[in-house]
Design brief:
Elements (H helix, E strand, L loop, with lengths): L4 E2 L2 H7 L9 E2 L6 H57 L2 H5 L2 H5 L12
Antiparallel strand pairs: 1-2
Length: 115
Amino acid sequence: MNKNRYISKRTARRNYGRNQNIAAYKLSNKLGNLSQTLLIGLMLAVLCMVYLSQTTKVTSYDYQLNKLNNQINQLAVKKADLEIEKARLTSIARISDSKVAVNLADQTEAVYINE
């Protein structure tokens, strides 16, 4: 028993124009209600899995970004502390009180060397 049904030439002529097929087959195989429901459920499950995988990727990137921002903030604080230490170590009062500066002689006159 053939499940494909043949449509007559007269019916085909009404449906087709010039230089087109005149025989048409109508398939009688259809999905049942249960099959359609299962396919729709499967497609929804796949879409949910894709959505969940994308959101977990975003969340993991967010945690990595927060970790890097914390490191940047810690390094900025350390840089500020080092700048303060540099200013303290290079201050004029500290330099003038150092042992090397105390032993230096005052310059009385300038000496120029000519070639």
